[in-house]
Amino acid sequence: MKLNLFTVLLVSTTSTLSAFSVSRPFRASSTALHVASAPQKTKAPVFDEVCETTGVTLKRFMSEVAMLNPDITELTVLFGAIETACKAISNLVKRSQLPSSETLGYQGEVNVQGEDQKKLDVITNDLLKRALRFTGRLGVLASEEEDVPVDLSGANKGVLIDEGERYVAVFDPLDGSSNVDAGIPTGTIIGIYEHDENCAIDPDCVGEDCTEQEAQCLANTLQPGTNLVAAAYCLYSSSTFLVLTLGSGTYGFTLDENLGEFVLSHPDIKIPEESSIISFNEANTPNWDKPLQETVAKWKAGKGKSGKKFSSRYIGSMVGDVHRTLLYGGVFGYPGDKKNPNGKLRLLYEGAPMSFIVEQAGGLSTTGKERVMEISPEVVHQRVPVIMGSKNDVQEVIDAYAAAQ
């Protein structure tokens, strides 16, 4: 490999490139969502092209981030755990249909959502919990498969907050697990928040006093997407992909199984501003809100603002649909309807992290009436309508809702 195939530029704070936003990103009005520049507080590594041999690995990428931004060094440890967990889950998914596999079938239990848990749901949830716990950088997590936020400080202990940097993780361990049997792509979604530095447990507290203090610390999971420090998803498909954002663009890595490393394959992903693809469960169309019905009908007839006639591409697995939307453009949505007015996707560990990734790629994410990233969850498993994707197309949906009010 020639040296000029791979260049790392250490960007100064006066660079025209966006900086990683460790603090809360921007706010916008509910009728016009525009992606604003994040505060220039940290520096970003820039890889000017994809290396054709061993490549820029995720480890190398994160080490450059840590070198330029010592204050977020602990994030590299968390992403090391996420990387390992995604490799392990990828192997479990690929082997899940073998007759000898112990991941076949249902666990015989129902999760807090009222959904039957597959063995693979439970196994991947435990795997990801352990991987994150043993980083020592995580205080609390919330998962689709857990009834309540989980304290990772140890058995029979209250929430323990050290003086060092601590984070809160929220995740869906295996999105689309019901599709595994059919070989349809599945994924893992993860969001990372900063732990509230004011969250502390009095070592001398007893009884209900301790319980109340722990509850306040566990409430760290109930943060809006604007507080996200980082978000990522892993897609288990023809290849295993890991896509992440640290608040300065969206980057995609592909697992090279010969090397056992995630290699940078999609540097600084930019979603097309407009497209001609919709990704909805159109069987629910009669139950959608009128503004969305009318907008989708115009798109399918070629009478929308772009004048393009839209086609439909729907996998039924959020990670797979969003990944395709990021690369090719379009609009993915699971809107509210008469049966499920708040939609079916969970705000905390599906809607917000995926919205962060899409927005950092130049797209938009809305419920139709408000920006998904700005909604503060009231409960861990709160659901939210989601419409995300290409900027101009999603803005058309936002304008239709605004005009209907």
TrEMBL record:
Gene3D superfamilies: 3.40.190.80, Fructose-1,6-Bisphosphatase, subunit A, domain 1. The keyword Hydrolase applies. One of its GO terms (molecular function) is metal ion binding. The keyword Metal-binding applies. CDD domains: FBPase. It holds the Pfam family FBPase_C. It is an enzyme of class 3 (hydrolase). Residues 271-401 form the Fructose-1-6-bisphosphatase class 1 C-terminal domain. Residues 1-19 form the signal peptide. Its cofactor is Mg(2+). It catalyses: beta-D-fructose 1,6-bisphosphate + H2O = beta-D-fructose 6-phosphate + phosphate. Belongs to the FBPase class 1 family. This is fructose-bisphosphatase.
